[in-house]
Q: What sequence folds into this?
């Protein structure tokens, strides 16, 4: 599942199937597919930071928030959607660099706690600075950009953005930058000895991951056409982190599959609505016990079993 | 002046509770590399058990003992056997992420079982005037109980054979094993100790915060902060960190902007991690690569 020449058509094919299916389905399913695309963009960013560069971040929800608020606040002033998206991504990119600085000093659990603390503060700012963010009453009537005003058209916009992000991430991972991220995760000291600037690449891993969070936020705001602070609080950060882990941290397809599980599971378990999060949590724990490399690992093993003649698929690191 | 003393005392009381929770948190992280993101929820679970036992007519002390037994079994032994033992070999970070999922499971389990309202919890009323200063029995009894627990824990760890064996297992499991210590059993005892600490914390904190399914979020954040401020690799540090955090938070809540009250422990946490990651009392730890 990790060979890039196979995963790219697989990912883009998945997008096309989702779009074609969405065009035939009801508005609610169209909304779910759009939401899946938006979450996947954010999870792809977090997967770069966590899965490939090995830096844990519990602040991804805050970057989604920055992107969403930038778009929701600038659109009424006549700024075109494309520009608000770039601004949101740029804000997240810059704040992502700042978030990366603690990672130069501390690692592992300490880093988890710093990013958790910063995410909590970001949420308090969203909630309290109501002169800017309208506080807990939120921002409503966020317009969708012309000509993507209908549900189906907006879904294609989300899927198209995801396709561009997918191509970008695919290119990034094959570029020397992507190799440097992997080196950073596997052995920072060795990476430094080979001439990789650990400092720059650590900051970049956070900044690029954060920028994708910003892009996903920019798409998120016009999707529901309403945003409020609690949507960008810690539960979203946990949820995005779990998407990456459930899909398969450090694999190309992981975020796509993790986001499918996260969006589809509540619908599958609709009859158990109240128990959905309970069951989702139990599924995550069971996955971590039995398949630490996530859904991608399960599929890779299943494929290997179905095709015993082929070379055994290495479990992705 | 009288307000100052009252804020100080109630800050120390809440800080003493943070200290208990943070002590358990540090014990787990030292004893078995388990960084438990569900530690806050671990406090709320026994609180619900106490309320449930109490509603069946048991007196509060007996309900507390029931909760101790349930917590030792579920939050201690089952947590270790079903989650920590299978996941830890995959990596400490995987286990941390699993405890985040456990936090979701516990919160939603309690939400579904008992609903979203805050349940009242029996406490101690009244107090005493010293001139203009009013001292409430609740804060005093919390402080006494927490101090007694911490002293007992320290005596247990330092003076008893089992306590020393636990310390040895945490510091050097290989050597401890060579010396004939049953390391696996010592780790299990650590989990049971943590369960006992959170159950005591539940008894002490619930009259103040009431019992609500998502109380664990705030309690957990405060406990992580206390553990790191004091020194992650020092059980004594958790006590200092807890008391300091409780007092600072209480003063900030009384005299500062209430909207940003929750930001205080977070800011302290960030400052400490960036400038003194070993905490107030901790030893500097080499960055492992």
A:
């Amino acid at each position: 599942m990790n060979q890039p020449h196979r995963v790219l058509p697989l990912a883009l094919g998945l997008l096309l199937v989702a779009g074609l299916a969405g065009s035939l389905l009801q508005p609610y399913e169209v909304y779910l597919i759009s939401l899946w695309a938006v979450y996947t963009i954010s999870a792809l960013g977090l997967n770069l930071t966590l899965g490939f560069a090995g830096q844990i971040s519990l602040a991804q929800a805050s970057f989604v928030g920055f992107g969403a608020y930038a778009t929701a606040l600038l659109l009424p002033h006549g700024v075109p959607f494309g520009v608000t998206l770039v601004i949101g991504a740029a804000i997240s990119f810059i704040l992502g660099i700042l978030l990366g600085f603690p990672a130069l000093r501390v690692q592992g659990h300490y880093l988890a706690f710093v990013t958790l603390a910063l995410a909590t503060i970001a949420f308090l700012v969203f909630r309290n600075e109501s002169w800017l963010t309208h506080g807990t009453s939120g921002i409503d009537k966020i317009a969708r950009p012309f000509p993507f005003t209908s549900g189906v058209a907006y879904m294609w916009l989300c899927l198209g953005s995801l396709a561009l992000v997918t191509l970008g991430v695919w290119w990034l991972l094959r570029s020397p930058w992507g190799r440097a991220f992997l080196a950073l995760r596997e052995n920072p000291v060795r990476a430094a000895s080979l001439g990789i600037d650990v400092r720059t690449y650590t900051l970049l891993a956070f900044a690029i991951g954060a920028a994708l969070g910003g892009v996903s936020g920019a798409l998120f705001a016009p999707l529901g056409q309403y945003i409020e602070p609690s949507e960008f609080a810690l539960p979203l950060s946990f949820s995005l982190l779990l998407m990456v882990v459930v899909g398969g941290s450090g694999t190309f397809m992981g975020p796509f599959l993790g986001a499918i599980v996260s969006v589809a599971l509540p619908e599958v378990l609709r009859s158990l609505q109240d128990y959905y999060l309970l069951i989702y949590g139990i599924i995550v724990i069971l996955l971590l016990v039995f398949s630490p490399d996530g859904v991608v690992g399960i599929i890779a093993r299943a494929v290997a079993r179905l095709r015993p003649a082929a070379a055994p698929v290495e479990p992705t690191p | 002046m009288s307000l100052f003393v009252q804020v100080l005392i109630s800050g120390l009381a809440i800080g003493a509770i943070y200290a208990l929770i943070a002590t358990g948190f540090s014990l787990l992280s030292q004893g078995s590399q388990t960084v438990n993101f569900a530690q806050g929820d671990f406090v709320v679970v026994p609180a619900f058990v106490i309320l449930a036992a109490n509603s069946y007519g048991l007196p509060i002390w007996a309900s507390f003992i029931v909760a101790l037994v349930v917590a030792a079994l579920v939050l201690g032994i089952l947590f270790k056997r079903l989650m920590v033992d299978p996941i830890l070999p995959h990596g400490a970070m995987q286990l941390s992420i699993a405890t985040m999922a456990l936090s979701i499971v516990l919160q939603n389990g309690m939400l579904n079982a008992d609903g979203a309202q805050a349940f009242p919890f029996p406490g101690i009323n009244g107090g005493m005037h010293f001139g203009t200063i009013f001292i409430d029995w609740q804060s005093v009894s919390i402080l006494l109980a927490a101090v007694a627990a911490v002293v007992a824990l320290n005596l247990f760890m330092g003076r008893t054979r089992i306590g020393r064996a636990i310390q040895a297992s945490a510091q050097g499991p290989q050597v401890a094993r060579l010396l004939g210590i049953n390391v696996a059993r010592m780790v299990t005892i650590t989990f049971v100790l943590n369960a006992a600490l959170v159950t005591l914390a539940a008894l002490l904190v619930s009259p103040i915060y009431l019992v609500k399914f998502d109380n664990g979020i705030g309690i957990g954040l405060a406990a992580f902060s206390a553990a790191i401020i004091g020194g992650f690799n020092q059980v004594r540090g958790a006590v200092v960190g807890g008391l300091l955090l409780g007092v600072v938070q209480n003063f900030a809540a009384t005299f500062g902007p209430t909207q940003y009250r929750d930001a205080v422990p977070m800011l302290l946490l960030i400052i400490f991690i960036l400038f003194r990651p070993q905490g107030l009392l901790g030893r500097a730890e080499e960055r492992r690569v």
Observations:
- The radius of gyration of chain B is 19 Å.
- The first strand of chain B starts at residue 127 and ends at 130.
- The beta strands of chain B are 127-130, 133-136.
- The interface with chain A takes residues 29, 35, 83, 86-87, 90-98, 100-105, 107-109, 111-112, 217, 221, 224-225, 228, 232, 259-260, 262-263, 266-267, 269-270, 273-274, 277, 287-289 of chain B (CB under 8 Å).
